């Protein structure tokens, strides 16, 4: 059978081991580590490609890692500082924080039907009590979420460090490698190429999503004499978050919804409905755009996303395009398809 397919046993064994390792990523909750590592590796290679025209390759790689590392540390520092400052500010002035929400509730009373209004808090004290009760009832879930967030942060950080270290390594001479090591190296290269293709496709998806959101927020919404604060900032956040498959779009939608609540509850509902429609459209955009990038039909990628979602949950849904692109590349290289 193997002779007819002309696939060496070493290739088959390396494929099985490599793909088993990829599947173990899910139960070990290391997908953030894998994605961040691949991202840093690709970014270092991209920057190196630009710099090596001016300086030697080894120095170009080192400078690329330094530039990228400095940028990441700066962005993370600004983000952490901003979040901590915001939290400290709200802790010092909790009444102002509650009053802002009460203003939203007061507006909602005049816009929502009575059957919904009766569930809204009538005062800041009542709202504070509701928050306390909710926190008490969901303390376990909050702790689990906190531990999960910390785990994701450190796995992301570990992945970035590993990606940078691997990017700094010199490309080994194939002749000096054993056949099995060379086979595993080829698997890694194919995975890296698959990730590269998916990332560039995601860039297009984010751009389309941002354009649709911008048209709605800047052109359509003002036609009804409704003006959303921080619109340009929200559009920028939409683009940046859109680079994160699926979940990034969800984060930007929540931010836009929260900001639009300050204007009107109905405006927020309409905007959220539109954003949800875009979010659903992203599934098909993923399939279409990424499918074109990896030479696959849209239905293939949609099917892969459904299977991975059913098997591994949300992590599987995020990883599905890359995993499918990798598998298809392997099959094409071995002329199985």
Automatic annotation (TrEMBL):
Domain of life: Bacteria
Keywords: Membrane, Transmembrane, Transmembrane helix
Regions crossing the membrane: 12-41, 61-88, 144-168, 205-227, 234-251, 257-277, 298-326
Protein name: Putative permease
Organism expressing this protein natively: Candidatus Portiera aleyrodidarum TV
